[in-house]
Q: What sequence folds into this?
């Protein structure tokens, strides 16, 4: 059986490798839809609050109203220097590669799986018309090929 849960967060980013409008700093209201495989053992499988109690606070702490940034992006060093000089504490969600929606999907899939959930698919909506569907097969294949080995997930186990 599949349980589906939806979450949203706001974040800024840029794709410094591209030579189009997405190279500029901009933001999105990301929508994620988690598809969890659960086993029925009685009148219900899993309380929805079990997902919300872990995933909601995690997204709020590490992603919401933050900036997704590649640590190799020259802007990263500038922001870190600004924070040090001025005492600002920007919420920077560090990636060790481009902050593409594909890399975000891989990173979130990893972190949510580390929470102990059996995530089978994750849909990440970046704009009103653009969604990446990322499933367990994609995640396993990417991990095996180390396609996203440069992403740096936080320890999401709570």
A:
């Amino acid at each position: 059986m599949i349980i589906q849960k939806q979450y949203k967060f706001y974040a800024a980013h840029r794709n410094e490798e591209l030579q189009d409008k997405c190279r500029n700093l901009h933001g999105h209201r990301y929508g994620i839809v988690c598809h969890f495989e659960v086993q029925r053992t009685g009148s219900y499988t899993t309380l929805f609050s079990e997902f919300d109690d872990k995933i909601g606070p995690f997204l709020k702490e590490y992603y919401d109203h933050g900036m997704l940034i590649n640590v190799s992006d020259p802007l990263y060093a500038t922001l870190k220097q600004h924070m040090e000089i001025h005492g600002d504490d920007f919420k920077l969600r560090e990636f060790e590669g481009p902050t593409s929606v594909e890399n975000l999907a891989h990173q979130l899939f990893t972190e949510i799986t580390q929470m102990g959930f059996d995530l089978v698919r994750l849909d990440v909506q970046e704009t009103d018309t653009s969604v990446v569907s990322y499933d367990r097969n994609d995640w396993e294949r990417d991990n095996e090929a180390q396609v996203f080995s440069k992403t740096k997930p936080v320890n999401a186990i709570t």
Observations:
- The chain has one domain: 2-145.
- Helices lie at 48-62, 74-86, 101-114, 136-145.
- Residues 16 and 74 are 9 Å apart (CA to CA).
